[in-house]
Write a structure and sequence with these properties.
The structure is a homodimer. By secondary structure, chain A is α+β, with helices and mostly antiparallel strands. Chain A has ten helices and eleven strands.
């Protein structure tokens, strides 16, 4: 039984999020999972408890370039992006599986350096590699699945009007680094380095959960795009106060070098920093490392859940899109 | 710290199993996992219990061809290959994550048909899709991770001399089907169909565990190759009795069409059937669906653990190799 519209459309026509939504419909609603698809991680029942699980797929020249990043850096980032998903649930990652698709001509040292990078990032949080798969492929693909535990997983759909909005970790550095690399620069180094190897605030996720965060997400596609997921899932309007954001100096440097672009654009829409964004009840005391940047409210009549910047919609695309 | 030999070698030089062994060394021995890499699935601690986890990566034109198999068939097989890994631990699969790398030009209906096939195969065992990832890629890649539970996971390294060796499920049909397709035939249909959509004996794994199987593996690379993993891990010599095997009629048909090849070769070395092979203590009563096909003994002086056929080494490659 095919959808007639879908028969003639391509993957690129529908885009990543459209395709995910379509597949979610096809695969039905899981009945036995504690938390199914659509959050940073799913929660799967285990005898006597549960485990969080999340998977990512990284593809050469889409998610990393071998001329921009060393194999070790690619390994660290591949692990970090996945560990961050458990962080975003307020959990602690325990184990990963790594499946590699590799061209036969690839130098073995690239693969061992990749493994070293994965191991180094896992060591930051005490997670271990439990297994995986290796097979031949035309381009390098790295499929990572991470498992973790959480006393109280923090979802996307449980934020409430009246909550305050806060962030932890870098915002804008990786995006500015990417912009610099895209134009042939190798500096400012601190921005380029964060694009190559992000530093997710691993302590901040469990601390936010313990402090009573009502909703949380990691910032992989850009703050506005990712807060948009919380806004829609929690049925709230999130309004950000730009005066609360500090623009990192390397971000300002890149914006200046690009002919005076607004540096705040990197902070609000840059991806790949793997910061955390969360909602907290207004009575919460924010843990160390968290900065209040806005508030959530009920949508007005006929208003859709969305993210506003200083009370207004933000111009331009809110974050990264695949297949574009 | 690089291995000097490795610096100049390529992935193809080292091969799949060599690379896995090298990476296992680099990644170190997991200390907190209940069972680490090297079995059909790893066992990861969960609060109050544990979960089994296993990952596979399927790549277009390596693991499937769009002109040989429909998207639905590819989806069923991708799920089956992973569900089989939990079966081989004597466990029950509960949840999968599916990450897809897709060319932008791919028709959406191919992706929805793939999802339907995955859902259909999961429904056979009551497993559900918990999440995943979608991204652009030059060729179709399907990364699957499966989670499951087992009261008593059956490993590869716990078989013993004196055990009997038994198999459950199809052997040789998928390999014969692959040989037929490779030569441009579309028949015999029952062999070609099993290559497209294998039928792992899902009940047989938990039944073998309950009956006291001492070691178990699923047959993905060929019976001799996969029993070889048990032999080496359990430090035994496995001797198969070919008179115990029934050659399926379509396998004989393909062997005949290929100029009188030995049909037993498909049974012993054909991959992709996802049968189970297990060792049982000699006092065990084999569950329904299991057939005794040999026995395990201590290696003789200076003899390596290995698999023999009617008391002798078997000629030719024991199974499928990637990167070759």
């Amino acid at each position: 039984m095919r959808d007639d519209d879908a028969v003639t459309a391509t993957v690129a026509d529908l885009g990543e999020f459209g395709l995910i939504e379509l597949l979610r419909q096809r695969l039905g609603s899981p009945e036995r999972l504690i938390l199914g698809p659509g959050d940073d991680a799913a929660e799967v029942a285990a005898p006597g408890g549960s485990l969080l699980v999340s998977s990512d797929l990284l593809v050469e020249n889409r998610h990393f370039r071998r001329d921009w990043s060393s194999a070790r850096e690619v390994g660290r980032k591949a692990a970090a992006a996945n560990l961050s998903d458990i962080n975003a649930m307020g959990g602690s990652p325990t184990a990963l599986t790594i499946s590699l698709g590799l061209p036969g001509t690839l130098d073995i040292s690239w693969v061992t350096d990749l493994a070293d990078g994965i191991a180094a990032e896992c060591a930051e949080v005490g997670a271990e590699v439990a297994g995986g798969d290796i097979t031949a492929a035309d381009q390098i693909v790295i499929a990572v699945t991470v498992l973790g535990t959480a006393d109280r997983p923090v979802r996307r759909d449980t934020g409430a009007a009246g909550d305050i909005v806060a962030v932890a970790g870098d915002l804008g550095l990786a995006g500015a680094g990417f912009a610099a690399l895209s134009r042939g620069f190798r500096s400012p180094r601190s921005a380029v380095d964060v694009h190559r190897v992000p530093h997710p605030p691993y302590a901040a996720g469990p601390q936010a959960a313990a402090a009573g965060a009502t909703a949380m997400i990691d910032v992989s596609d850009g703050l506005l795009a990712d807060l948009g997921h919380i806004a829609r899932a929690s049925r709230v309007v999130i309004d950000l106060d730009t005066s609360a954001f500090e623009v990192p100096e390397p971000v300002a440097t890149v914006a200046e070098a690009l002919g005076g672009a607004d540096p705040l654009r990197f902070v609000l829409t840059g991806g790949d920093d793997y910061a955390l964004a969360a909602l907290f009840s207004p009575r919460s005391e924010l843990p160390d490392g968290w900065t209040r940047v806005g508030a959530a409210r009920h949508p007005d009549m006929d208003e859709e859940p969305r993210v506003l910047v200083d009370g207004s919609p933000y111009d331009g695309p809110p974050g990264h899109q695949h297949f574009s």
